[in-house]
Amino acid sequence: MRFSPLLDQLIEALRCLPGVGPKTAQRMALQLLTRGRDNGKRLAQSLTDAMHHIGHCQQCRIFSETPVCEICSSLHRDCAVLCIVENPVDVSVIEQTSSFRGKYFVLLGHLSPLDGIGPEELGMSKLKTRMENGELQEIIIATNPTVEGEATAHYISEMARGVEVKVTRIARGVALGSELEYIDANTLAHALVGREEI
Amino acid sequence: MRFSPLLDQLIEALRCLPGVGPKTAQRMALQLLTRGRDNGKRLAQSLTDAMHHIGHCQQCRIFSETPVCEICSSLHRDCAVLCIVENPVDVSVIEQTSSFRGKYFVLLGHLSPLDGIGPEELGMSKLKTRMENGELQEIIIATNPTVEGEATAHYISEMARGVEVKVTRIARGVALGSELEYIDANTLAHALVGREEI
Question: Do the Cβ atoms of B189 and B183 come closer than 8 Å?
Fold first, then answer.
């Protein structure tokens, strides 16, 4: 059954959100109309503002409505260390650890030739320029430990070959609180190879 | 960690949607920004339209942007049978069965004195007027088979006492495809009491 045209249109539009199917979209629309019209209007306004005004930081490519983001323009962060991540949310999770005080570079994806995502889409030329300007001492590659993430990491390390800069990769090994019994062989192999003296 | 102010604002605003926590809201916002700006703008527009222009049908109280909804204004439906439901979505599920051709009345909730929802909030006076205008022959009470739904059903049946109209309640019994082993005692008791001759 169809509701009124505007309501059907809202339900359809809500399905663009990740993880929202027809049933959830219907529930969301009806709940907003029943007891959340002010919230709905506020959400509409926030969406409009965000979609129109949020761009990318000129330096690290993270989402930002200012030309240079807060982290890149901070004077309290170490300009000599650059951490390269795939997604903006990765910056968020690394910041939560409070154990990194350098700057970031966000690729906004990983190499995926079949999807038409090559070095240019990931801002590699911008990254290259940044590597060559002599300010960097270390690059930490923190792409995801997936096949695509590893390939992207490999590409970046190759790109850094001619440049006088230390290139590191975040450690791959066993996660804290996990049990060896349930860890996959590849991870365990990495943990053994990367063992540290205590 | 906080993102840019507009992005934080969008993440916060998305949390008004039912079932959306901080992590999901963050994922939604980032995905819309990364590869769904047009969808995001369309959603904002649909939300604005819906929140401002969708009201309630004057006759059945369902959501509608026209004064009288499609079902209420249809000439092909039986005006003598009125099905009373709690929520707009209930109209949708009953319509999907294709086994009801009468009209609806949507309470938009159930009696819940503690939440300040009394007969007036549920449009009982409008329902009373409708019962008394002589057009109705049968009222089917299809409120949910919960404690509140049953209480609301009881209230409506009491209200219909003085009126010349047949009042029925949807059958409570075992669901098709279920197994007796797993059915609760109350439902089974209802199924026994409401047994039908075959």
Answer: no
A45, closest residue in chain B (CA to CA): B44
Give me the domain span that covers residue B14. 5-53
pLDDT tens, A106-122? 999 999 999 899 999 99
A-B contacts at Cβ under 8 angstroms:
179
Percent of chain A exceeding pLDDT 90 equals 75
Residue numbers in A near B24 (CB within 8 A):
19
Q: What is the CATH number of the domain that holds A13?
A: 1.10.8.420
Distance between CA atoms of residues A77 and A101, nearest Å: 5
What mean pLDDT do residues A79-103 have? 92
Same domain as B38, residue B101: no
The 10s digit of each residue's pLDDT in B44-59 is 999 999 999 999 999 9
> How many domains, chain A?
2
Question: Using CA atoms, how far apart are residues A166 and A160, in angstroms rounded to an integer?
Answer: 9
* Residue B66 maps to a domain: no
Q: Which of A3, A45, A89 sits opposite B63 (nearest CB)?
A: A3
- Asked if residue A174 belongs to a domain, the reply is no
Residues of chain A positioned with their CB less than 8 A from the CB of B65: 4-7
CA–CA gap between residue A151 and residue A158 (Å, rounded): 11
